[in-house]
Amino acid sequence: MAKKKNEFWEWIKALVIAVLLAAVIRYFLFAPIVVDGLSMMPTLHDQDRMIVSKFSYKIGEPERFDIIVFHAPEEKDYIKRVIGLPGDTIEYKDDTLYVNGKAYEEPYLDEYKKQVIDGPLTEPFTLEEKIGQTTVPEGELFVMGDNRRFSKDSRHIGTIPMEKVLGKTSVIYWPLEDVRFIK
């Protein structure tokens, strides 16, 4: 009888440890997210399931063109691409991104740029026109969706404070035919 009781408590302890470990991993390290909408097409599709690495920004600063998840002002989590880092000037003209006066290629937009026949994919703008400042403020990021015509991003909601960033994402795990690392 004592052996069965002891075995029962061992199973209970193992289950409690497993649940606690899963909670710690999900809260501090990794979390699943579902892409909701078309703002990151063609890179990400509606209902793609991804893993968010929560510790990636605890270690280092974000890099330009990282795909991040953050708490948006509407009490929702958004997934967008980092375009501007603190201190950067941002400008779009002739469908080309200029950061600090230097033109950058955005190969993830090539597919959509080929399809557009009625004007540029990204309307021309300067950072000052969008946020009222010439540079991205310290501790904040300027983000945009890849589906530029249909994305609610920093052009509409302003820059994103770093403390609102949940983490970086680069792995699609569902649907199975779309499993891949993204850039």
What fraction of residues sit in β-strands? 25-35%
Q: Summarize the biggest pleated sheet.
A: 8 strands, antiparallel
Q: What gyration radius follows from the Cα positions, in whole Å?
A: 21 Å
CATH top level? Mainly Beta
Report on the structure:
The protein has a single domain (33-181), classed as Umud Fragment, subunit A, CATH 2.10.109. It contains 5 helices and 12 strands. It is elongated. The mean pLDDT is 84. The N and C termini lie far apart (58 Å). Strand 6 (96-99) and strand 7 (102-104) form a beta hairpin. With 183 residues, it is of the alpha+beta class. The strands form 2 sheets. Strands 1, 2, 3, 4, 9, 10, 11 and 12 form an 8-stranded antiparallel β-sheet that branches. Strands 7-6-5-8 form a 4-stranded antiparallel β-sheet.
Characterize this entry briefly.
The protein contains five helices and twelve strands. With 183 residues, it is α+β, with helices and mostly antiparallel strands. The strands form two sheets. Strands 1, 2, 3, 4, 9, 10, 11 and 12 form an eight-stranded antiparallel β-sheet that branches. Strands 7-6-5-8 form a four-stranded antiparallel β-sheet.
